UniProtKB/TrEMBL annotation:
UniProt-listed InterPro entries: Ig-like_dom (IPR007110), Ig-like_dom_sf (IPR036179), Ig-like_fold (IPR013783), Ig_sub (IPR003599), Ig_V-set (IPR013106)
UniProt xrefs under SUPFAM superfamilies: Immunoglobulin (SSF48726)
Pfam families: Ig_2 (PF13895), V-set (PF07686)
Lineage per the UniProt record: Eukaryota, Metazoa, Chordata, Craniata, Vertebrata
Protein's recorded name: Hepatocyte cell adhesion molecule-like
Domain of life: Eukaryota
Residues in Ig-like domain copies: 122-208
């Protein structure tokens, strides 16, 4: 998950954080010691924060705080600061948040963030079809690495620490795949890496298991 906050409470600058799905995030207002009778409102939306998710006010001397059902008891408001904690944050919580604090004057702050899931481990297997033979270079073993696609996922082949090639796609309905050819008597270490802004998974290529036919040619 990727968190970007823009402060419009008189404090300049942007706050940018990276958070993954399942973590607990607190959206800080920057206030301390708010008056007990302030009205605190939190809004959320994919682009424009129009949907009210928290309303906290004092009625007949009692503090009444109401939370949106959509977040299913995952929200907790701090009345002293107006800050909001979101537990077990998930991808559908992505979007823009706005806190509005009303006490004589109207103050507010905007948060915009994207939630990323942990990238799955890539799978490495034998590529379908016959192995290629290229003149004096000898036989080659064709393998392919694949991973379920997701937001900002990149798939890469490495030889040692050197990146050989990589791929990504905005189409989240299709898996990512990346082929690789290994030459005969190749003793290098190959690994396939899937990553996004919050996580990385690596699968080593087992040449002995997948390319055993090379030694028999």
């Amino acid at each position: 998950m990727y968190l970007s906050a823009t402060n419009v409470l008189g404090v300049t600058g942007d706050e940018v954080k990276t958070v993954r799905e399942g973590e607990t995030v607190t959206l800080h207002t920057g206030f301390t010691g708010l008056q007990s009778d302030v009205l605190i409102l939190w809004f959320h939306g994919p682009v424009d924060p129009k949907t009210k998710i928290v309303q906290s006010q004092v009625l007949r001397g009692e503090i009444i705080t109401e939370y949106s059902d959509r977040f299913r008891d995952r929200l907790q408001l701090d009345r002293q600061t107006g800050s909001l904690t979101i537990r077990n944050i998930n991808i559908t919580d992505s979007g823009v948040y706005k806190v509005q604090i009303i006490s004589g004057e109207d103050s507010y702050k905007i948060f915009s963030y994207t939630v990323y899931a942990t990238v799955p481990a890539p799978l490495v297997g034998k590529k379908q079809g016959r192995s290629a033979v290229s003149g004096s270079s000898g036989p080659k073993c064709s393998v392919v690495c694949s991973v379920e696609n997701g937001r900002d996922v990149t798939l890469s082949w490495y030889k040692g620490k050197e990146i050989l090639n990589q791929t990504s796609s905005p189409d989240l309905n299709t898996n990512l795949s990346l082929p690789l050819e290994i030459e005969d008597q190749d003793n290098n270490t190959y690994s396939c890496v899937a990553d996004n802004p919050v996580s990385q998974q690596t699968t080593q290529l087992n040449i002995t298991e997948l390319c055993s036919h090379i030694s028999r040619n």
